[in-house]
Amino acid sequence: MELFHEYYSGQCQLALDILARAKAESRFTRGELESIYGEDHVPSPFFDTLKELTGSGLLDASKDGAYLLGESLRPMRAPLPALERAYLKYLCHTPEASLFLEPEALERISQNCGDVDEGLFLGILRPPLPPVPEIDPQVFRAILRAIAEGRMISYRYHTQSSGEWKTALHAVPFRLEHSVLDGRWWLLSYSPADGRPIKSRLENLDQVEPEGPHGMDEEALQEITRQKLAPERAVLHILSPKNALERTFLTFDNALDMEAHALEDGSAELSFAWFQFDGRDIVKKLLYLGEAVTLVKPESLREMMREKLEECLNKQKT
After folding, report:
1. Suppose 72 and one of 28, 57, 171, 248 were both cysteines; which one would form an S-S bond, judging by CB atoms 3.0 to 4.6 Å apart?
2. Helical ranges in 113-187 per DSSP H
3. pLDDT value at position 4?
């Protein structure tokens, strides 16, 4: 009986090994299989397994003697509840998904979700976006890889003023941000040469290449971030009508150290830390939110908002 179990356990493992190889490689020959598995398995189970796989359609034998993954091997269903598989399938078809994974990988994930109705999530409210320049997925993935591996990057950047492409010095990437408001992606990095953080639109970066390790730990990067924070937190007062609180959370989804609490009159107060170079972007978001959201402080941001409103009024007069 022990010999019986050893034979069939080995045959099962051999079958799984062959199918895994067929999944990873487009084609392989019988000789290649024999050279790999022949030393570890006696001929009888090896040939028996190969015969069973081809007979069942899990492997197809071509005329030139090569083996391919057969059409009978259907994609395996992801081990998730139907609702989660439907949501995963929906995510595979969002524009942002192509930045993270190749189309072939997204298609395989979608197939592995099985026959589920992703239409359940097609009604998710996404704010209308202005035309957003396309981002090269290779640029996006190179930045992600550098952040994950603690490496510096070199890149070219496009200047808005002159419209030229310039080569930047090495930088330490440490944060990617996505704005739900306008659909743009931003990179926060640190320039050791200048000793300052940089915030860049991803569509303005090109030829991003991971370089050597930067040697900075998380605490050092956080300290650099803190040095560029405004001395006073932004405080917003939010009224309840028109889903103002939900829209505010969505608009400031990348805010640092956000805090919120309800007030007795049904309104809410929200505060967050902000970078000094982000003032104009915050003002733009506040104008988008409308009259249900009031900027309480700091005075520096309130002054920037007044200047922006006066600029808009002057344009209307002309």
Report:
1. 57
2. 137-149
3. 39
